[in-house]
Design the sequence.
């Protein structure tokens, strides 16, 4: 009987240790979570930049475009990224090239941008 009481006394001294270990590990989990979210936003921004470049180049390739190619490029992407997008269209008589630059938003407060995603697309003219 004394051995069982002795075991309980040792365990009573360790009460709350798991909670403290979790609190110590919590900042690492939060940093990893924010990094994963930031990586996903960066990949999504690169994809949207490619979509905007293709839409702008396609519109610029028409002989008589129905709308401004830069407006078409911005309209092709998500609204919260369209305000961060810079679409430019160049090209000659045989092809149209559109380049889109989009600032990658940050999930960390106080940091405005995590760089720029840039994509280009070239389409033959009609």
Sequence:
């Amino acid at each position: 009987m004394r051995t069982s009481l002795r075991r309980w006394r040792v365990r009573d001294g360790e009460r709350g240790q798991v909670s403290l270990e979790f609190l110590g590990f919590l900042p690492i989990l939060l940093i990893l979570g924010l990094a994963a979210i930031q990586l996903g936003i960066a990949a999504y921004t690169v994809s949207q930049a490619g979509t905007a470049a293709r839409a702008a180049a396609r519109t610029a390739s028409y002989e008589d475009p129905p709308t401004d190619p830069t407006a078409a490029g911005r309209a092709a992407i998500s609204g919260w990224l369209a305000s961060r997008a810079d679409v430019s269209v160049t090209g000659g008589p045989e092809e149209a090239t559109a380049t889109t630059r989009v600032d990658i938003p940050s999930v960390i407060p106080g940091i405005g941008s995590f760089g720029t995603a840039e994509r280009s697309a070239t389409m033959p003219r009609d």
